[in-house]
């Protein structure tokens, strides 16, 4: 018997989906600068920058 695949077809290997909330005003500011298409990359880069400021080298 094969093990059940717990990830859906849209999930990617090596990553995990997280659902977070943004205040409406903050989200509007972000989207006005980066647009909807670059949102994920922009947020990830912000998290990496925060890690660097804390003296932690982010993993790729």
From TrEMBL:
Pfam families named in the record: DUF3950 (PF13132)
What domain of life is recorded for the organism? Bacteria
Under what name is this protein listed?
A: DUF3950 domain-containing protein
Q: Which InterPro entries match?
A: DUF3950 (IPR025030)
Domain DUF3950, which positions? Answer: 26-51
């Amino acid at each position: 018997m094969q093990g059940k695949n717990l990830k859906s077809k849209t999930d990617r290997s090596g990553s995990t989906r997280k659902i977070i909330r943004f205040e409406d005003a903050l989200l509007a500011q972000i989207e006005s600068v980066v647009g909807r298409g670059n949102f994920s990359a922009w947020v990830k880069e912000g998290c990496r920058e925060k890690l660097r400021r804390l003296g932690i080298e982010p993993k790729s």
